[in-house]
Amino acid sequence: MADNTGYEYMNEESINERLKCSICTKPFIDPVSAKCNVKKHIFCRHCIEEWIKRNPSCPMCRQNLRTNDLTPITDSVPIDMLDRILVKCLSCKQAGLERGSFNDHNKMCPKANIKCLSSDIRCPWTGARDELDKHLKTCIFNPLRPLITELINDNQQLKNQVNQQQTQTGRLQNDIQQLEDQVNQQQTQIGGVKDDNQQLKGQVNQQQTQIRQLQDENQQLKNQTGQLE
């Protein structure tokens, strides 16, 4: 893995080669094993994932390899050996630190590079941890922090309210759409009923016409019968 860990290894030449990644040649960080047919090959997770992006094969045996084929190393023996490797802090130069506890050291290291406590409100300062108190005495952002924090919280509350209102608006729009669909269905049904009614009226008119014709014919027959008498 790339040397951005904040430490360097002490007497790196003496570290067992079986604990080193064949890609970066450094001791494993977050080691994973590749499912190869010939032999189980171990790499740093970051190293092998970056390798697979460029070339989806094992760098040792050239077997096809995907990130899904990687399995984390959970055996306590190699993990413990890796954690016990001695390192030197690049910030404060303290040596003899176990790699497994370096993060704890880095959280307290007086020379570790940190951001201002007001970096979240855009103070650009970065520097050694033991310089922070000196910076805070002249930091123009720090005195404004309570006010800005309150404004940020108010802004977040307003955003939450807007999101809630947008959600409610979306629900109302869905309800309105459903009502419009129901109205359209009812109008379609009403239109169908009107068409049926119109057809019935037409049929009634036809029957009335036929009845009148029959009545006329009946009257004619009566007249003819009367003439015969």
From TrEMBL:
Coiled-coil ranges per UniProt: 148-224
Protein's UniProt name: RING-type domain-containing protein
Highest taxon, organism lineage: Eukaryota
Sequence ranges assigned to domain RING-type in this UniProt record: 21-62
PANTHER family found in the cross-reference section: RING-TYPE DOMAIN-CONTAINING PROTEIN, ZINC FINGER, RING/FYVE/PHD-TYPE
UniProt keyword S-adenosyl-L-methionine present: no
A matching Pfam family: zf-TRAF_2
GO molecular function, one term: zinc ion binding
PROSITE patterns given in the database record: ZF_RING_2
Keywords linked to the UniProt accession: Coiled coil, Metal-binding, Zinc, Zinc-finger
Listed SUPFAM superfamilies: RING/U-box (SSF57850), TRAF domain-like (SSF49599)
Biological process, per Gene Ontology: protein polyubiquitination; ubiquitin-dependent protein catabolic process
